Amino acid sequence: MRKMGIKAQWIKPYTITTRDSDFSEELHNILNEKFHPERPNAVWCTDITYIWTWDGFVYLTSIMDLYSRKIIAWTLSQTMEVSCVIDTIEKAKARRRTDLPLIIYSDRGSHKGYPYDNACIESFHALIKREWLDRFKITDFRHAYRLVFEYIEAFYNTVRIHSHCDYMSPDQYEKLYQKVTAA
User: Are 169 and 161 in contact (CB under 8 A)?
Assistant: First the structure.
């Protein structure tokens, strides 16, 4: 290659993260594609996505409130362990402090299941990559963390409008709900 002047080009690697489920009979789908709950904190949807950096993959665990499509909690980690998911759920519980009945939906992590109920959070993960992360050559965990923070906290939840939210941001949509229910 050197003699011919050919240089190698680094391409983002692809990883297989889905395995067959061996417990599909034990779990029941209670969400069943009902993406429009009547109130905040009725249905949370969670998923993990990977983000490629020059140092290797990092993993974004996000929880979305399906009422407003707001990302109510997220963590970025260097491993894909259950503890990271639990940390994210604990963050969401601390931020939202609800005593009302709540569904937390997941597509069973790395097991094949019924993927359609996860469409909203999968769409968010595609958005953060397409609208923001893919613009950068992400060097390491710290760089990825800063970019994820900027997108979620300074743009997606507060500024970015959603057709689902009558063309308001998730924060505006939830504030409108609070205003209407307080009246």
Answer: yes
Q: Report the alpha-carbon distance of residue 138 to residue 140 in Å, rounded.
A: 6
Q: Which residues contact 133 (CB under 8 A, 6 or more apart)?
A: 51, 144, 147, 148, 151
User: 127 with 62: CB under 8 angstroms?
Assistant: no
What average pLDDT does the chain have? 84
- Asked if 181 and 167 touch (Cβ cutoff 8 Å), the reply is no
Residue with tokens 């949807």: 45
Contact 89, 103 (CB under 8 A): no
- Give the position of tokens 């993959």: 57
| CA–CA separation, 58 and 140 (whole Å) | 8
Please state, in angstroms and rounded to a whole number, the distance separating the CA atoms of residues 24 and 8: 44
Calpha distance 155→169 (Å, rounded): 9
- Cα 20 to Cα 38: distance, rounded to the nearest angstrom: 34
Task: For residue 130, name the pLDDT band (cuts at 50, 70, 90).
Answer: very high
In contact, 81 and 142? CB cutoff 8 Å: no
pLDDT digit string, tens, across residues 4-56:
565 554 545 544 554 555 555 666 666 555 667 789 999 999 999 999 999 99
Percentages (nearest 5) of helix, strand, coil residues in the chain:
35, 20, 45
55 φ/ψ angles, rounded to the nearest 5 degrees: -85, -5
